[in-house]
């Protein structure tokens, strides 16, 4: 029996994780759950899973949960409590499924505690990739990707990296793949969040629509698989059936295919090196629409170009684009800037921030803070 600490339990990845747990009550136990503010949903989860701990990061929500709870679950509050539950001696696996930079500290804490980290929170690696990977090595943690593309690469690389020439991340292209760029300024948050293949949280849905999600994933892949930027390629594949591919020098290409459902990658991270039923229907290739592949359009999806540039630039550039992106997406979702404002804010923040190298977590956190302030200033000028 493995004890799971599930961070971001009320989110899209959190819910899918619980669906996999439901299929295997003999293998997995929910030891701790966390959420930000949604205490009503957390109350339902506590009633069902009876975890030892429930963390609400927001203090008022923790108080409300505490007053309503009837199980023996201990309710904790604040971001600090996330670190406590991940490092707890009874935690075996940590599902890191908080959205954004807010998920970095707890994911890193899981690495330092030598746990199996099932990593959905790609932002952790974008912010602190070097520090994170070093902690995984030093503390003998196990890092298993949950992002579907990285799970695909991880699965394809099971026979090793010998003779590897490049990896190729597939991108669906999002809802605006075929929308002319002159229509981009009219895109609403609801249109941006209506992804054709995947059902996800609102932030990552907007990231998919701008293709910044793929940009963040290129950076994630660079750290996870320790590859040079030129070994990481992106191909647009609107059907989201081929989840990603690895290319070898002998002419072989290995790809991982499946229906677009995160439970495959989640269950693999939970059962690795074995495989278990995830609840996802088997792919029926004879009933699948024709698979298409295109070159990404960097002129239209400038966020993807900015992410590649930030990776090549190194230092604080990746932290800066991530911070500016989070602020810009939040403002877009709140109808404060238009869709085209997102790449503009990121680009301007990146060119205003001084380029430096960062050597400590404190410097990373500080850079993230300063970049957010600068992005807000840029939005004031933009708006
Ligand atoms: P979501 O918005 O659906 O859920 C986010 C979760 O994080 C919620 O449980 C929320 O309570 C919690 N949260 C939000 N802000 C927080 C804060 N400040 N402190 C602590 N907790 C906070 O997001 P999601 O779609 O499940 O995505 C989660 C992560 O997984 C993201 O990093 C995303 O990029 C990654 N991911 C998601 C998918 C997907 O299909 N949804 C696929 C690949 C990767
Ligand atoms: Mg992905």
TrEMBL record:
One of its GO terms (biological process) is isopentenyl diphosphate biosynthetic process, methylerythritol 4-phosphate pathway involved in terpenoid biosynthetic process. Residues 143-225 form the 1-deoxy-D-xylulose 5-phosphate reductoisomerase C-terminal domain. InterPro entries: DXP_reductoisomerase (IPR003821), DXP_reductoisomerase_C (IPR013644), DXP_reductoisomerase_N (IPR013512), DXPR_C (IPR026877), DXPR_C_sf (IPR036169), NAD(P)-bd_dom_sf (IPR036291). GO terms for molecular function: 1-deoxy-D-xylulose-5-phosphate reductoisomerase activity; isomerase activity; manganese ion binding; NADPH binding. 1-deoxy-D-xylulose 5-phosphate binds at residues 122, 148-149, 172, 195, 208, 213-214, 217. Residues 4-129 form the 1-deoxy-D-xylulose 5-phosphate reductoisomerase N-terminal domain. Belongs to the DXR family. This is 1-deoxy-D-xylulose 5-phosphate reductoisomerase. It comes from Candidatus Ruthia endofausta. The lineage of its organism: Bacteria, Pseudomonadati, Pseudomonadota, Gammaproteobacteria, Candidatus Pseudothioglobaceae.
